[in-house]
Amino acid sequence: MKPTERQSALHIGELLSGPLGTIADIPGVTVGHCTLDEGAMQTGVTVIRPHPGDAFLDKVPAAASVINGFGKSIGLVQVEELGTLETPIALTNTFGVAAVAQAQIRAAIRANPQIGREWSTVNPLVFECNDGFLNDIQAMAVTEQHFDNACAAASTDVASGAVGAGRGMSCFDLKGGIGNGSRVTAIAGRDYTVGALVLANFGRLPMLTVDGVPLGRVLAERAAQAASAASIAKPEQGSIIMIVATDAPLDARQLKRLSLRAAAGLARTGSVYGHGSGDIALAFSTAYTVPHASDFVTLPPLLADARLDLLFRAAADSVEQAILDALWSAASVTGRDGHRRLSLRDSVPDLAQLLKRAS
Questions:
Q1: In whole angstroms, how far apart are CA 265 and each of 90, 130, 348?
Q2: Nearest to residue 204, comparing CAs of 217, 193, 222, 223?
């Protein structure tokens, strides 16, 4: 979905969005998708590049928060220990993690043949959600080439919905996928932007809350009472990956605090971080880089902790907006064994009127 179409979705909170309404409102950040859409293969890869240069040579500060750890990601341990990213961030399905990590390593070695020999090894970073309802996940269709294709496609024109890693994802028993949001806030006389990209694959329909309105319960009441009760009884077993970027000068400790606020935006949509869910947030800053080969690192003046509240608010609003964007932007998809997920707009053609009546 293009930014002009994205603006027709409900705006969350009072802070203004950036001009694109995506994570690419952070200068230097680009996103690329590679989508597999062929019969039972409904999956893909999404790549987030923190800046246009070499992520290994010029690392960016980062930190992650694990809200609920039922996930199979690669690379979180080193991010926690060192507080930096050294590859693009990759998103894919659960069984595609190994192939994408291998692709990240090969790409880093092509750019820097000293890796693993004269230099240290590289830390790939891959996040995942399980798209097995719509996608034949056992086919392990994701390959290294798909990661390379997503990298090559990276730009500031960021699509949302059933694209890239989001192709086969479900959200609140509807079609989920990739979502974007951004917010701009003024701190100490200067504007800073927070952007979010989510891979939304969680929730049960009766739980869905849109800007405080219990939309899911209203939709469930439209269905047969028996079907509604069965839906309520099902556990929340999905997952969500939340990537938060900012141009504010923060260190890794502060970024960990920022990443944790993604959970506030997630909770507002109705998630309770179920037992079987993998809910992970990562935050990074583009305000400075950490050179790979340097004896000293020069940091810009960092924001004081006492000035972070508006960034926390922007992160929560951006994540909530991104989840809504994923639902709003997704197209209905039919995949493995005829399984089908309807988009929010196909399911609720009177969405605007319904929200107005329920609020």
A1: 22, 21, 23
A2: 217
And the tokens for 34?
């590679």
Cα–Cα distance, 284 to 337 (Å, whole number): 39
Token pair 């050294």 is found at 86
Q: How far apart are CA 114 and CA 1, in angstroms?
A: 40
**What one-letter code names the amino acid at 139?**
A
Helix (H) or strand (E) run with residue 20 in it: none
In total, the chain counts a number of residues equal to 359
Q: What token pair was written down for 231?
A: 């839906």
Contact yes or no for 69/235 (Cβ under 8 A): no
Q: 58 burial class (0-12, 13-18, 19+ CB within 10 angstroms)? A: middle
Give φ, ψ of 63 to 5 degrees. -160, 160
List pLDDT tens digits, range 88-105.
Answer: 999 999 999 999 999 999
For 123, the 3-state DSSP assignment is coil
3-353 is a CATH 3.60.70.12 domain: yes
116 to each of 107, 123, 308, how far by Cα in Å? 13, 11, 38
Kindly report, residue by residue over 10-52, the tens digit of the pLDDT: 899 999 999 999 999 999 999 999 999 999 999 999 999 999 9
Of 75, 120, 77, 78, give the one whose Cα is nearest residue 102: 75
Residue 3: predicted pLDDT: 46
Alpha-carbon dihedral sign for residues 263, 267, 303, 249: positive
DSSP codes, 264-283? HHHHHTT----TT-EEEEEE
The structure tokens listed for 358 are 């329920």
Q: Is residue 286 a contact partner of residue 51, using CB atoms and an 8 Å limit?
A: yes
**Extents of the domains making up the chain:** 3-353
The tokens for 44 are: 């893909």
> Which residue numbers are catalytic?
239, 277, 279
